[in-house]
Amino acid sequence: MRPNPSPPLRVGLTGGVGSGKSTVATLLARCGADVIDTDAISRRLTAPGGLAIDAIAQVFGHGYLTADGALNRPLMRTRVFANPDARHQLESILHPLIQRQALQQARLAQQAGSRCVVFEVPLLIESATWHHEVDQVLLVDCPVETQIKRVMERSQRDRPAILAMIAAQASREQRQQAADIILYNDGLSLDELAQQVQSIAVGFGLSSP
Ligand code: ATP
Question: Would you say the pTM of this structure is higher than 0.90?
Answer without folding.
Answer: yes
